Amino acid sequence: MTRGQHQTALRQRATLEDVAREAGVSLATADRVVNRRDGVHAKTAARVAHAIAKLGYTANAAAARLARNRPRRFAFLLPSTPNAFMTQLAVQVAATARWLEGQNAFIDMSHVDVFDAEALAAALRGLQPVYDGVALVALDHPSVRAAIDDLVARSVHVVTLVSDVPTSRRVHYIGIDNPAAGRTAASLMGRFVPRRGGTVAVVVATMALRDHAERHFGFMQVLSQEFPELRILPVLEGRDDATRNRTLVRRLLSDTPDLVGIYNVGAGNEGIAAALETAGRARDVVWVAHELTPDARRCLLNGVADAIINQDPGHEARSAARILLAHCEGAPILADQERIRIEIFLRDNLP
Amino acid sequence: MTRGQHQTALRQRATLEDVAREAGVSLATADRVVNRRDGVHAKTAARVAHAIAKLGYTANAAAARLARNRPRRFAFLLPSTPNAFMTQLAVQVAATARWLEGQNAFIDMSHVDVFDAEALAAALRGLQPVYDGVALVALDHPSVRAAIDDLVARSVHVVTLVSDVPTSRRVHYIGIDNPAAGRTAASLMGRFVPRRGGTVAVVVATMALRDHAERHFGFMQVLSQEFPELRILPVLEGRDDATRNRTLVRRLLSDTPDLVGIYNVGAGNEGIAAALETAGRARDVVWVAHELTPDARRCLLNGVADAIINQDPGHEARSAARILLAHCEGAPILADQERIRIEIFLRDNLP
DNA sequence: CTGAAAGCGCTTACAG
DNA sequence: CTGAAAGCGCTTACAG
Q1: Confidence tier at B115 by pLDDT (50, 70, 90)
Q2: Model confidence at A82, in pLDDT bands (50, 70, 90)?
Q3: CB of A80 under 7 A from strand C?
Q4: Going by C-beta distance under 8 Å and a sequence separation of 6 or more, which residues neighbour residue A128?
């Protein structure tokens, strides 16, 4: 009726003490082998390794953390531009900070103008030399890259969050695959729109932002190849600004009678929603956007938006903290757990 | 340029010792207050509480775990029917077990016939009284419910995994909202299928499974209300069996010339794929299914499947372990982190 | 290259 | 109702 029940649970777990006794060495030497510190005779190391294998020893993580007792300090740099998604991210970083405290690690969050590479680079250079790790919403620019690499050269663990600098020496990027997100948007758009064709528009903040350019690229790729019946307009740049987006879309709607779809790559969804509703086109224009903010949720529920592509800010904040911590402690990372999903939300699977 | 940089990171963190000194009590008493154990004079407790607030004390989780030093044992009961999703889940439970060991907690995994309520109930009753917690892929049946409630009465923490028994006293359900998953499938189906209408079929294992019945219900609800141009056939029961599904779909395809969509609620996707391909209908019939197994992934990539609705087995395994551990230790749960998403995968956002 | 011993910050009997 | 002290399983100087 039941099978495969392991008996491990009923055995007492081996400690480092047990390993040391089994190998005939002291605790200190056993510890050296377990943590791969050098200065151990090869023969001794082999004896210890054998004991570890024989007893199936795995370290007690709580004891190790306590004994080490080194507090960790992380700096998180977020954009000072207050868009809804970044606000959510800041809230989640704060929540993560409270959890981290129990792990004897601390987060200092600060805000910098994202669109200004020099300011971001200066902020990175100006970081007090107390940090074990830094997480930043990056801007792909040579100055930023240099500042990241300088930190890494000083053995600070650096991760990029939401927006990457792939050529830098950051140890990890925590965010979605942006070209894939663009392709996903295109697939949804192409299938949601009427078969007879029409015109589609794409709105970005500026093509100078790597993630926006990448999403646009992925979108174009799929739409042009798989939905040739759709005509794609030159990209519109709204600077993530709702007011500007509203103006752009109002003009777009009056200039393009056969408009069937809008893909908003960046922020400022309120402006687009307003323009669509004012023109009475909210129900017949397919609109795909990013980030499940309160506004986006409302738009999904009332049918103005058709799909929202999301990255979970809570997951990203926790992931950044776990990854920084793991790098500091030399602990393993669960790749599976840290992979940031390209989430698709319709009205029906809203959390 | 930067602002809002907290100074917490530069302060030394307060220990229980500090709290005790500040309140003028012993460590033991401070501990009693922190952990809400009783037998402390109200005035003393107030003094300690004041010290905690003043110093901003939060417990060092590692030290607490170590001092407590109580190993935890969990039993995980999975279906013995070896479908691809359940195999993935078993792999993830095993991976989680390795992580848990470092937390001084251990998982015993065993397998029971899911479709047999009495066998499942007997397995629950037959569990050795060594377990602090139990996670099971449940079957919503009075015998199972009674067996769960008996465990809870013996103060065992019980969680349901993937499939729930909502009326039982289990402390948590780790899985997706199944009616919402069905509604999501319907929205995708309705929008992917040609506007002119046609016939849609739904395949389940059996309507006696709560999750299948719920998904079917959600699907019907949205499809009938929002896509009245689509005709829905009576549900087909394939017992999660690929061979049976293949036969059902072969017959379906020949009997229903205007078939435009299939929603497979359960397992056995290979059978459906085979029938669609053999009939040369793979590209024009919209097919929505569940669980991103290797087969499902292949079907998405080659265009046989149009969307896969997924629950992440790795997330579920880790979540079950974290939730059981938290309940054992009286620790808080991060609801946000434990929420199991209804994931939508298209070819483009495959991980 | 190796070991004895102190110590990390809690919890837990035990005594009073 | 309160406290002194041992102990959890590691890591870390320090001595040799």
Answers
A1: confident
A2: confident
A3: no
A4: none
